[in-house]
Specification:
GO molecular function, one term: symporter activity
Helix content: over 70%
Pfam families: MFS_2
Transmembrane segments: 46-67, 95-117, 123-143
Organism: Lentilactobacillus rapi
CATH topology: Growth Hormone, Chain: A
Structural class: mainly alpha
Number of helices: 6
Low-confidence stretches: none
Oligomer: single chain
Protein name: Major facilitator superfamily (MFS) profile domain-containing protein
Number of strands: 0
Mean pLDDT: 86
Radius of gyration: 19 Å
Order of helices and strands: HHHHHH
């Protein structure tokens, strides 16, 4: 049964030869952009929340811990939905199209100081940061899966991943 399934799936893979350097760089730049925002958040958000936003270091640390726990559950759930999706626009494209704008908006909102009191600011920080983290997953999980959809040639897949990883690391 499993061998038949694999044979069926391999019939749907389009054989792809050489992928040009321009396409590989373009693919890597997508992850560069995503990681540029994520790296900014990772390095500056704690400082922003404590020194600009005005919440305590303990409250901000707890916020980061809660978001990581939520990630532990949201990542596989979103991965499941990505794996099961099949639209007329493709398997991954809708996630990238409909997740990019909310991701960018939420990145700006995370660095916006509302005119709320202490508890209101903390609630605002939780909502915006949790939503941003879920949006990041919503975009990044399907983006990472694109390599397998772009080629079924193992060497090209490794090359694409190398470009993607190299450019992603430049953003950090």
């Amino acid at each position: 049964m499993k061998a038949q399934e694999t044979l069926q799936q391999s019939k749907h893979l389009r054989p792809i030869g050489h992928i040009g350097a321009g396409e590989k760089i373009g693919f890597g730049l997508g992850d560069f952009a995503c990681n540029l925002i994520y790296a900014s958040l990772s390095t500056y958000l704690l400082f922003f929340y404590t020194n600009v936003f005005g919440i305590s270091a303990g409250a901000a640390s707890l916020l980061f811990l809660v978001v990581r726990f939520i990630d532990a559950f949201s990542d596989p759930i979103i991965g499941f939905f990505v794996d099961k999706s099949n639209t007329k626009y493709g398997k991954y494209r809708p996630f990238l199209l409909y997740g990019a704008v909310p991701f960018a908006v939420l990145a700006v909102l995370c660095f916006t100081v509302p005119g709320f009191g202490g508890t209101g600011k903390l609630i605002y920080a939780y909502i915006t940061y949790i939503m941003l983290s879920v949006c990041y997953t919503f975009v990044n999980v399907p983006y990472g899966s694109l390599t397998a959809a772009m080629t079924n040639d193992q060497q090209e897949s490794v090359s694409l991943t190398t470009y993607r990883t190299f450019l992603a690391m430049l953003a950090k």
